[in-house]
Write a structure and sequence with these properties.
heterotrimer, A mainly alpha, B mainly alpha, C alpha+beta, A: mainly alpha, 13 helices, C: alpha+beta, Immunoglobulin-like, 5-stranded mixed sheet
């Protein structure tokens, strides 16, 4: 099998996933009635990415052959798709939804950093404990639950940073602390993965049942089990941290822009006062 | 004199730090001269190998920990409150304590000379060379202990700075308006809080190895030499940014004033500082590129190391752009600042060479590295310090430093610096390794070395001119007014000045001019004296707790790392589980105690804490009976280290709780309660890792 | 690697020139002139900021690609699929080289010219670093770890090397030579080094007896089959080496110095001065000279 073969034939169009993503997109277009094309593009690309993440060869590779592919899959689920969704959700939709009292109550609880942070970070840690990880690989139901944990947990995690309700977002110092500590946890996990002994996730050391693909990966791409594990750990660490760092810098940028607006207003105000003398 | 010894006034503490650093600058300078004298020609016998090894170890350790760190802290202690319009630091007594820790550590380090020899394994003391079989004399114990004291002092200062900036800013001084020096201090202090514990963990483990016969870093008994490298450089790389960020802050104050233009791109300057701090935790392996860690790991760290150059470059361009379009006054301070730009750029560019791994494979551990770090530390931080000295001396002493001597100072230092260190790039390329007490007579090696030594002499002369200038100006210098440079930030203000922008003093002076010409000013608003609450202790304790968390985290990682070597025997899960529950319960009781201020809850906490300690004692006894000690196996080493340090923290907590017993309404109860809760949480983590 | 360095140097030079030109321009054009007005306030320009973030980012990306490509080419696999061609072990303060056929030597490593060899590098005591600048990248020799490098000399010759990680008192003196020679010569050398030395005669035999009486064998192996981990270099064929201790020319005078007063040559090394009588020194030196 060549890389091209894999790219062409490695897709597993699981009906529930396809239907689910399509439904999500349609529901968005109907309910959210986005006015800004950029917003719609963000949300829909998030949905598209979700589809690709779950049906493309990434999924096949990640389930059976490559740890790094599996890490990539989770990375997208937790760190890329939720931010895209949140940035693409128009404020009006959320405000409308929150007119329901119980939803407002739920949002109030989940938006607290003390709740949202653990809901994002703890599943990430727990699901990488070898027992849990290997069990999820073996059982389909558990695997779906794992993906839901990342997706839902990720969305809750990013709510105080990128959520559409800007007044519920964290202030600058809080955001920095929030993101930095999450990044640290991610880094630790990644570093652990790099330095852990090879048999921690045995399914990837000697992949079974996917001989052609395994051959392509080991021979064609030259990725042995150790490199694979290291790349997996590094992916969690470096690109993961870059995501958090970008979020921090974006927060800083936003904060300065707001500040400059205030400074601009203050300067105008005092200039006016001076002028009147 | 007594006033100075017992002072908590930030101005005096600041000056004390600076004078201490100046003294050790001379000592470290003498050490450098000795090294350069020995290296002036091949095969000289001026210094024996032992003397040379001690000299270069002490030179590095002195310059980093006894000169640059305290002088930067000293400047900050003096200037920070003034710049934000506060009257004092958040914890004045803490700043005094930190100073005395600095003195204690410095003295302890130099006592080693009298106690069998100074440390001689280099300023980063790689294991197993630093272990007892290869370094039996106590010099390294002195090194480790003194560094522990010094780093504790740094952490306390950093906590002080963060809380000061967070809480004591004058009204109107929003974080967006603070001088960049303050911003850099904030970021730098966070770096210190998170990075120094890594050093502390490594030093603790080394001392336990050396004194208690443990095996963290001795491969012959199953330890790992690489673990020391990792832990040290996890500290070591942020450390180099700790040494340079405040210098960046100083330059950011000086260049605008002498260009008569505000700093170009304040936002990007602040943002890039955050990026640097962030990234600095992810590049440490670039000090270990010569270790065979595999292409994947090395590539990743090459990428991050190259990435960190970008925000640094942003700063250089910002400073330059500040000058363009300005009206530049060439005072000595400004001369040093301009030289800083060029010299630091050279240092930074030589650094990028090391990020390119295959180049590092030839250049690391040669004089190319020595050239690189001296360009960034001397051409960078030291030049910035000279600039800062000329700039703020009138503030500290009321007199101006002499400008003609200043020009001599400047030219001697810059010429000396380049002569000494530029040729070292070439020596590195020619293959001369570092840390050698002599070298073979290869073509050009002798000639370049003698040029370097000559340069060092000039550099030394330049530094002496500075000292003379300082002493002479203190006595004979022209008196300076409160604002000799026509500057913009609050430290130059004589009276309280309202803060409505990044340049409050400029606004004030413009206002004053308008008032003179008859224009009525708007309401002058609130005066800029800081709020009087000195220290919400909880904030400081919170930072301390974070710092200790990193320390424990690394010890737990060491435990986990050695777990696979087996030997986990004789642990009692159920009993320890019960004692764990007791400790967790005490976390609850201490919270109730801090809320209700009731003695009953306090008593409950102390009781539960004692029960926990008894349980730990039982567990240790059981292990000792099975001949599991800190030196018997890696399990013993790691277990007793992690559990032992935790137990020590519990003991300290109990003592603190007992001290508050008499006055449960004391303000101290809240932070102590926070500390205690942290102690329980750490134990929970240890319990999960060790017992489950 | 030279190409990579040239590329790096070019980039660095360009960047420095840009900065220097800007700085010089600033200080010349914008020096304070008497009577000049206060300069216009400029708080920054978004365009400039983005430009000087994006361009360095691109440069750095380019350098990264070059780096990874060169790395892949130069670096040996750390889990190699075949046995190494030789094993190099760092000791305080000398280098041991052991070959699969049993040949063992110290400080003078022979390799066949024109062939790429896989070398395993480790250390017996503290961290050292094996560095033969013209032949290979540096590699840290870490006790408890195995590391692998490619060692290749294009042409026959004598190549210098040195230890490149501070390892104690005689780190500066831990030199070695790599001698690349044609295949035939190399095989012959291997055979000789693997064979036990010929039995000593005459004065050398007296020296051999002294050698065993004074227990020199506790630190120095003479037979290539002796694979104990010892603190001194093997002496089985010491007389055939170009240098003694990696440094001094191999002459009887220097040999005598090493036998009796090693502390004068490398102060701090592990062999104490022996305080032998002149006759004993002569005998031992003769013995050493016989170990060809």
């Amino acid at each position: 099998m060549t890389t091209w073969d894999l790219l062409v034939s490695g897709w597993d169009w699981e009906p529930s996933v396809v239907v689910g993503c399509a439904a999500l997109a349609i529901a968005y277009l109907l309910l959210a009635r986005p006015r800004k094309p950029l917003q719609a593009a963000l949300f829909l690309s998030g949905a598209a990415l979700l589809l690709v993440d779950l049906v493309s060869p990434i999924d096949a590779l990640g389930d059976h052959v490559l740890l790094s592919a599996h890490v990539l899959q989770h990375f997208l689920l937790a760190l890329i798709i939720p931010p895209l969704w949140l940035l693409g959700t128009p404020r009006e939709l959320v405000e409308r939804a929150l007119r329901q009292h119980w939803l407002a109550g739920v949002e109030r609880v989940l938006a607290r950093p003390a709740i949202s942070w653990p809901l994002g970070v703890v599943p990430m840690i727990v699901w990488h404990i070898p027992g849990a990880f290997n069990a999820a690989l073996a059982t389909d139901g558990l695997h779906i639950f794992q993906h839901l944990c990342f997706l839902v947990g990720g969305t809750i995690f990013w709510w105080p940073i990128l959520g559409p309700l800007t007044e519920h977002r964290l202030g600058l110092l809080g955001a920095i602390a929030y993101l930095f500590s999450a990044c640290l946890s991610c880094s630790v996990l990644g570093a652990a993965l790099i330095f852990m002994p090879l048999g921690t996730y045995p399914a990837y050391v000697q992949p079974v049942g996917q001989d052609e693909v395994a051959r392509l990966v080991r021979m064609g791409w030259g990725l042995d089990a150790r490199s694979d594990q290291q790349i997996g750990g590094l992916m969690m660490w470096v690109p993961g941290c870059l995501v958090y760092l970008s979020a921090i810098l974006a927060s800083v940028g936003r904060w300065f822009a707001a500040g400059n607006r205030d400074e601009g207003l203050a300067a105008k105000a005092s200039a006016q006062v001076l002028h009147r003398q | 004199m007594r006033n100075w010894l017992a002072t908590t006034d930030h101005k005096r503490v600041g000056i004390s730090y600076m004078l201490l650093a100046l003294f050790f600058l001379l000592v470290g300078g003498v050490e450098a001269m000795l090294l350069r004298a020995q290296l002036a020609q091949p095969n000289l016998k001026f210094l024996s190998p032992e003397a040379y090894d001690q000299a270069f170890t002490m030179h590095g350790t002195t310059m980093i920990f006894l000169v640059v760190t305290p002088v930067l802290i000293g400047f900050t202690v003096y200037l920070l409150p003034l710049m934000i319009g506060a009257r004092q630091l958040a914890y004045p007594r803490l700043s005094s304590l930190a100073f005395w820790l600095q003195v204690a550590g410095s003295v302890l380090l130099y006592t080693s000379f009298a106690a069998g020899g100074a440390p001689d394994a280099g300023w980063f003391s790689y294991a197993p060379l630093s272990e007892t079989p290869y370094s039996p004399h106590p010099g390294l114990d002195f090194w480790a202990l003194s560094l522990l004291l010094l780093s504790m002092g740094s952490i306390l200062s950093a906590i002080n700075f963060i809380v000061t900036i967070a809480r004591l800013r004058a009204p109107g001084m929003t974080i967006r308006r603070v001088p960049l020096f303050v911003w850099m201090t904030l970021v730098n202090s966070s770096l210190i809080v998170f990075a120094m514990p890594a050093l502390n963990a490594a030093l603790a483990m080394l001392l336990i190895d050396r004194r208690l016969n443990a095996h963290f870093f001795t491969p012959a008994q199953g330890g790992s030499a690489l673990l020391w490298q990792h832990y040290f450089w996890i500290f070591g790389h942020p450390e180099v940014y700790i040494l340079v960020l405040p210098a960046f802050g100083m330059i950011s104050e000086i260049i605008p004033v002498f260009s008569r233009k505000p700093i170009f791109g304040y936002d990007f300057m602040a943002g890039s500082t955050l990026a640097i701090a962030f990234l600095s935790y992810g590049v440490w392996v670039h000090h270990m590129f010569a270790v065979a860690l595999g292409k994947v790991v090395l590539s990743a760290f090459a990428a991050s190391s190259m990435l960190i150059a970008v925000p640094t470059g942003v700063k250089i361009f910002s400073w330059t752009a500040t000058m363009i379009g300005g009206s530049i006054r060439f005072t000595t301070a400004m001369l040093f600042a301009i030289a800083f730009l060029l010299e630091f750029t050279i240092g930074g560019l030589s650094g990028i060479g090391f990020a390119m791994v295959p180049l590092d494979w030839q250049l690391t551990d040669t004089y190319f590295v020595v050239a690189h770090f001296h360009y960034v530390l001397f051409g960078g931080t030291a030049l910035a310090l000279f600039a800062a000295a000329y700039y703020w001396f009138p503030k500290f002493s009321g007199r101006l430093l002499n400008e003609s001597m200043g020009k001599w100072n400047f030219w001697l230092v810059v010429i000396g610096l380049n002569l000494t260190f530029f040729v070292q790039h070439i020596l590195g390329l020619l293959g001369m390794p570092r840390r050698v007490y002599t070298y073979p007579d290869l073509p050009w090696w002798g000639a370049l070395n003698v040029i370097s030594t000559f340069g060092a002499v000039i550099l030394g002369l330049g530094s002496l001119v500075f000292v003379v200038n300082m002493l002479a100006s203190l006595v004979f210098g022209a008196k300076a007014g409160p604002d000799p440079w026509d500057a913009w930030t609050l430290e130059w203000a004589e009276t309280a000045v309202p803060v409505r922008s990044r340049r409050p003093l400029w606004d004030w002076k413009r206002e004053a001019k308008r008032q003179e010409s008859g224009v009525r000013s708007p309401e002058s608003g609130v005066t800029a004296s800081g709020r009087l609450e000195t220290g919400d202790s909880r904030a400081g304790m919170g930072l301390f707790v974070l710092s200790e968390s990193v320390f424990f985290f690394l010890l737990i990682v060491a435990y986990e790392y050695f777990r696979s070597s087996g030997g986990a025997v004789g642990l009692h899960l159920r009993e320890t589980g019960i004692f764990t529950a007791c400790l967790l319960a005490s976390g609850f009781t201490v919270w109730r105690a801090s809320v209700t201020r009731g003695r009953a809850w306090l008593l409950a906490t102390i009781a539960l804490g004692l029960v926990f300690l008894l349980g730990q004692g039982r567990e240790y006894w059981g292990l000792l009976e099975q001949h599991v000690t800190i030196s018997s196996s890696l399990f013993g080493t790691t277990f007793f280290t992690v559990a032992g340090f935790h137990a020590l923290h519990v003991v300290a907590g109990l003592l603190a709780l007992a001290a508050v017993w008499k006055t449960p309404k004391s303000r101290m109860l809240a932070p102590i309660s926070l500390y205690w809760q942290f102690g329980s949480l750490v134990w929970l983590a240890i319990f999960c890792v060790v017992y489950l | 690697m030279a190409v990579l360095f040239a590329q790096y140097l070019a980039v660095a030079a360009v960047i420095f020139t840009v900065v220097a030109v800007l700085v010089v321009y600033a200080i010349v054009r914008y020096r304070a002139r008497p009577g000049a007005p206060e300069p216009r306030e400029s708080h920054g320009s978004r365009a400039a900021e983005i430009a000087w973030t994006a361009i360095p980012l691109a440069i750095v990306l380019g350098l990264f690609v070059l780096t990874v490509r060169t790395m892949a080419f130069v670096d040996a696999p750390q889990q190699p699929e075949r046995a190494p061609d030789l094993t190099i072990t760092g000791h305080q303060w000398w280098w041991l080289a052991r070959y699969p056929g049993g040949a063992v030597t110290a400080n003078e490593i022979h390799i066949p010219a024109g062939r790429r060899l896989l070398a395993r590098v480790d250390a017996a005591d503290v961290i050292h670093d094996f560095w033969a600048p013209e032949l290979a990248r540096k590699i840290d020799a870490i006790p408890g770890r195995e590391s692998y490098i490619w060692l290749e000399a294009d042409a026959p010759g004598v190549y210098q090397g040195t230890c490149s990680e501070f390892c104690g008192m005689q780190h500066a003196g831990m030199h070695f030579q790599v001698i690349a020679e044609p295949e035939g010569q190399f095989s012959a050398w291997l055979e000789r080094q693997a064979a036990p030395p010929s039995p000593p005669e005459g004065l050398a035999a007296d020296g051999a007896r002294l050698f065993s009486e004074r227990k020199c064998g506790d630190c120095h192996a003479v037979l290539p089959s002796d694979t104990r981990l010892l603190s001194g270099p093997p002496l089985g064929h010491v007389a055939s080496r170009m240098r003694l201790g990696g440094d001094r020319a191999n002459t009887p005078a220097n040999m005598a110095l090493w036998v009796n007063e090693p502390q004068t040559i490398k102060p701090g090394n592990r062999m104490p001065d022996q305080h032998l009588s002149a006759a004993d020194v002569q005998a031992l030196t003769a013995y050493m000279e016989s170990l060809r």
